[in-house]
UniProtKB/TrEMBL annotation:
Signal peptide boundaries: 1-20
Residue spans crossing the bilayer: 415-440
Lineage: Eukaryota, Fungi, Dikarya, Ascomycota, Pezizomycotina
Domain of life according to the entry: Eukaryota
Gene3D superfamilies named among the record's database cross-references: Acid Proteases (2.40.70.10)
One Pfam family of this chain: Asp
Organism: Mytilinidion resinicola
An MF annotation (GO) of this entry: peptidase activity
Name of the protein in its database record: Acid protease
Classification via PROSITE patterns: PEPTIDASE_A1
GO biological process, one term: proteolysis
Domain Peptidase A1 residue range list: 45-379
Keyword field: Hydrolase, Membrane, Protease, Signal, Transmembrane, Transmembrane helix
Amino acid sequence: MASFLLFLSASVLFAQSTAAFNCAKAPIYVDIHKRAVHGTDVFQYGSFIGVGNPSQNQSLWPSLIRNDTIITDSNYCDHSTLANCAQSTRGNFDTSLSTSFVQEKNFQSLDHNITDLNGTFTGEFGQDDLHLYTHFFETDGASQNVVSKYTIEVATNGSAAPGIVGMGYSSTLLQTLYDQNLIAGRTYSLYIGSGMDRAGGVINGSNVFGGYDAGRFQGDVHKYPMRTDNASPFPVTVQDIIISDGGDSTSNISLFDPASFSNLKTRPDPFEARLTTEQYPLSLPYEITQNYIKKLSAGPSGNSDGSLKLNKPFAGTMTIILDDGFTITMPNNVMFNTSGISPVAARDENSTDPFLLSVAFLSQVYLMADYDTYQFFLATAIQEQKAVMPRTFCPKATPTPYIPPKASGFAQQGMIGAVIGGVVGGIGLISFASCLFLGLRSSRAAKKAERAEEEEKARGKATMLQFDIDDKTDFEAPPKTATPFFWNKR
Ligand SMILES: *[C@@H]1O[C@H](CO)[C@@H](O)[C@H](O)[C@H]1NC(C)=O
Ligand SMILES: *[C@@H]1O[C@H](CO)[C@@H](O)[C@H](O)[C@H]1NC(C)=O
Ligand SMILES: *[C@@H]1O[C@H](CO)[C@@H](O)[C@H](O)[C@H]1NC(C)=O
Ligand SMILES: *[C@@H]1O[C@H](CO)[C@@H](O)[C@H](O)[C@H]1NC(C)=O
Ligand SMILES: *[C@@H]1O[C@H](CO)[C@@H](O)[C@H](O)[C@H]1NC(C)=O
Ligand SMILES: *[C@@H]1O[C@H](CO)[C@@H](O)[C@H](O)[C@H]1NC(C)=O
Ligand SMILES: *[C@@H]1O[C@H](CO)[C@@H](O)[C@H](O)[C@H]1NC(C)=O
Ligand SMILES: *[C@@H]1O[C@H](CO)[C@@H](O)[C@H](O)[C@H]1NC(C)=O
Ligand SMILES: *[C@@H]1O[C@H](CO)[C@@H](O)[C@H](O)[C@H]1NC(C)=O
């Protein structure tokens, strides 16, 4: 019932907004995983984006705070203090190798408020073409959308890794995509995944510009206002944090509970925390951090990101509860990896730094943001999914997850198999089939899916999605030394 109402309200909003936005426009899906990048032989985790002509490919990290997109000049590491620089820049860019790069000496960046950022850069601005790659299936090549004459910063010196897609609330990329009529509206969704080195995981992430991946989240979708008076546009309020150490419910301890922690005189107030990708570990208030240290026997890890290390094995989980009831559990492999490192940062008693729900949190959460109405949505991420289901995220609409049909052969066979088998029927399935359509286009199955789609259209049913992405190109080969070969979807 609840999801029906959600669907209904989404449809109403959808209908209202179609006048102002071209919501028939397909979203642009850009996968996040480890891959070969220009200028180094080390695979790096990030968004598959190329710059210039010919395309110098990068693996860009999404920032929720920066407005500009930054790439690394090929001489960056001559000056930078970034550790392990040559292998950490997420690709580099040689302006002289691009036939289309035009320097923009007078470009005025919006990015001045550096307090919430992981490092700063000096560089030059210039216009060039941006190639947004989509790579769904291991066996297929990547397809691309080209953003022409986009202004990018080429970092020549700094202390951290450039290679950043700026998705702050005045994101120049989102605005340019919208201005060039490449997406329906200024909407964007992010699953950061857990394939980066610090997380040590294998789950890949994705960006969806002008859309969301309906297969990437489940359960209730929670709505929050974006902040427009601060460089961090995604604040939420944390009401409780519960450590469960695997036993019965008596083993659940709230880090806010004065009865469990004698240093608390009263229960602490809920606190505002910002969503960020600028760091991996969470930054929590000092007294909460102290309780975490006490409960889990934590101490310094020596890791440069400030993460605490647990000095005793821990088999439990940590649950974060927001003030609207959204509940996210950090699984045990995030809480305690075999080196004992944990996802909470140390904090000084008098620190005035903001509280952060960072990459460790976002690896469990799907973020969907509407920069046209300044609101964002959070839902529980589905970590492993057989298929990618990008859908248009019309401004003002509420994203809805894909609900698999109950106990049918379809679900058991897996979605890809079903489409190949031509088991298509009903409006939900047809829009789902058209999601898969692009990825399957080059294969024989695509012809079947296409036929089924044509038939469905002929019967007068609207399809919710259409893909019109440029020609397929070959995916660049990984370095020969790389094992295993990383040629994959997502
Ligand atoms: C993530 O992407 C890598 C390629 O970088 C691939 O090898 C791996 O199988 C993918 N992981 C999952 C869970 O799909
Ligand atoms: C991004 O732009 C907005 C202005 O629209 C500004 O308030 C914000 O501080 C900028 N971000 C950074 C990192 O400076
Ligand atoms: C940065 O943002 C903070 C609020 O988050 C504000 O107090 C400060 O003045 C801003 N600084 C600049 C340089 O814009
Ligand atoms: C590069 O930046 C570092 C700090 O990150 C600074 O110490 C150094 O002087 C800068 N070098 C140049 C050439 O600008
Ligand atoms: C645990 O995390 C640390 C920090 O990211 C990493 O260096 C280490 O390799 C991880 N250990 C395992 C076994 O995954
Ligand atoms: C409390 O403990 C029980 C049993 O371990 C568990 O099922 C439940 O989810 C826990 N509650 C929270 C909020 O973590
Ligand atoms: C932030 O910068 C440090 C080095 O300055 C780096 O080790 C860390 O990985 C960076 N974090 C992210 C999320 O990029
Ligand atoms: C924090 O501030 C208080 C009050 O000014 C002071 O007594 C205390 O020593 C400070 N703590 C640290 C770690 O600096
Ligand atoms: C960048 O990646 C695209 C898509 O896979 C590929 O066509 C192109 O050749 C790559 N560029 C280089 C310089 O390898």
